[in-house]
Amino acid sequence: MPELLIEIFTEELPAIPLTKNIKSIQENWNNILKKYRLESNFDFFYTPRRLTILHNNFSLKQKDTKIKSYGPPISIAYDNNNNPTKAMQSFLNKNKITKDEVSTIMKDNKEVLYYEKVDIGIDSSKLIASMVKEWLLSLNFGKSMRWGDCKESFIRPIRNICILFNGISMPCHAYEINSSNNILAHRQAKDSNNQTMSKNITNIESYLSFLEQNGVMLQQQKRREHIFQNIKKLEQDNNIKVEIDCDLLDEIIAITEYPTILFGRFEERFLKIPEEMIIASMKENQRYFAVYKNDSLYNGFIVVSNSFNGDFNLIVKGNEKVLRARLQDAEFFYENDLKANMNFGDLSTIGFMDGAGNLQDKIKREENIALRIIDLLDTINIDCNEQEKQAIKFAIKFAKCDLLSQSVGEFPELQGVMGANFAKNMNMDEYICNAIREQYLPNGLNNTLPTQKISAIVNLAIKLDTIFTLFSLNKIPSGSKDPFALRRQSAAILRICHHFNFNITIQDLCLIAKDYYTNVNQDILLDFITERIYGIFPHINASIIRSVLMRKFGIAQSFNKILALSNYFEHIDIKSIISTFKRVANILQCDNIKNSNIDTSLFEDSEKILYDNLLKYINSKNSNNNIESNKDSNYYLSCIKSVFLLKENLDSVFDNVLINIDDENIRKNRIMLISLVFNEFMEFGDMREISI
């Protein structure tokens, strides 16, 4: 089978841009295969110095393809004397053909000019070099560079392009280099002249074999498994537990061709520094994995070296020396900060945003919002006692103090975390410490939420102030641009409200902005926050979400009902639901149908069955009316299953009686019955909005 091997050999690729673009690198190549009509399966592998594509069965030539071209109708193509018109001549010129090559065909009940030809596929060997150059030019890693006399740019200098097709090295000139099938091994693999090992490879098998024998694990998944296996062995041998940070692991896989896992240690005295500072020193600066023993941070670390031979003890000692210096700095900053007792400076000296004052002004606004949130929660029977209110005020007051600390100056990612440590050192209440620590949560769509009610209220107040302030300054996200992450913060607000069963409405939250912020368009703000719900549930039919949102339930209820409806509709024929409620929509022309007494004596059999089952459902619902805090998505799913049992009875009424009958009393009675049934469905969403 014809094989195709492409290796782009470069200087060391930066890990984060590489890992972020793995998917697009593969997609771009796949798109080029489609463009050139050479689609086939391939594997993509990467190391710090090479991007490799392997096709085990690549076509020798493009697929032949038929090109069909439709022209003007015969009535327009010829004049009254049966001579070709300009319309026909334009069709001939477009296809570069003569009149004799044209035929006709019926299209849209008209006889039109028609031309068909077969585009013969070109040999793959004549196309591959152009495809590779096009692929390289399509790759965008955010930043690129030029080197030497090269006019093209890439994320790092390209040192070789190898294109091996069907055992033949394909010539390609790009980036001021000529392609070669001479492959370089790992930097440590040396020949007798102390030069990096290289080999002219002839096929995929020889390529993989040469790399494997000379210190290169080409497949990133093999490097991952190798790291896991060796860490597991270290854990067993040393009775430790290694914390595997997935993002850090991806980065390490991208910077190693042969990962060697080593175990180092640091002085036990550094463990008095907050755990987060130690881990940040190891992870952010040195790419080390943290080590635990007996559920506590241990004075050890795992370093993954890009080496397969040499003095590993020397590598460990070198890394221990570097980490010691880092931890000494952290120790110095932390001890100095403790002496300050959270008096790090005046927050009014730090501007928040042009036109929005300083951080001290922001804190005052956050306190006002927190009090309003407490009032809103009181209306849904979620009470905050005086002690909790004071804790919320205190947490907001001290939440940003650590921004002026030396520790956060050195480790900006520890904002809030360090503040919580300083607050704990001052013997502040545990709730206050947690609220300070959790003020920035969640850090992403699926990350951890605040753990306590006080933390949640503080978190909401901080995020709402940021959103309201930026909306008042007309810094509203547009398109894909969202420099202040307002979409993420809005989604976080909604998720927190759901998690803590804060069943306040989005409208009520937006109204807070009316009192303390100028120029905030309530409609735009409301739509912006509401729209985030679709992003939180990307896997759920948008019409289901819309049907619930139209009912303007509280946030917690809306989330639970969306989840419940989605769960229910996964197991039934949604088309039948749409059909039933379209009929309901035609009958109930408006939502506000005046209630009147039902006259059961006017019922026919199907109506009586529907009405009796409706009463049974209502009585059952009322007898099992749980308190609001217990009404989660499972509760609503149970209710939905019960109420949808009425659908069969409703369909039976539609099939057996005429709703719009001439007798006005009977007609109104039937419409009223349908309205009563439909109102029960409306407790979960407007079913008329559901679509496929």
Detailed description of the structure:
The protein has 692 residues and is an alpha+beta fold. The strands form 5 sheets. The chain has a 5-stranded antiparallel β-sheet. Helix 9 packs across helix 10 (312-340), helix 11 crosses helix 16 and helix 15 packs parallel to helix 16. 30% of the residues are buried.
- The helix-and-strand class reads alpha+beta
Strand order of the largest sheet: 2-3-1-7-8
Q: What helical percentage do the residues reach? A: 40-55%
Give Rg in angstroms.
34 Å
Q: What is the subunit arrangement here?
A: single chain
Average pLDDT works out at: 93
Give a quick account of the main beta sheet: strands, pairing sense, barrel closure: 5 strands, antiparallel
How many E strands? Answer: 16
Please report the distance between the alpha carbons of the first and last residues: 45 Å
Content of β-strand: 5-15%
Q: Which regions contain 5 or more consecutive residues with pLDDT less than 50?
A: none
Shape: flat
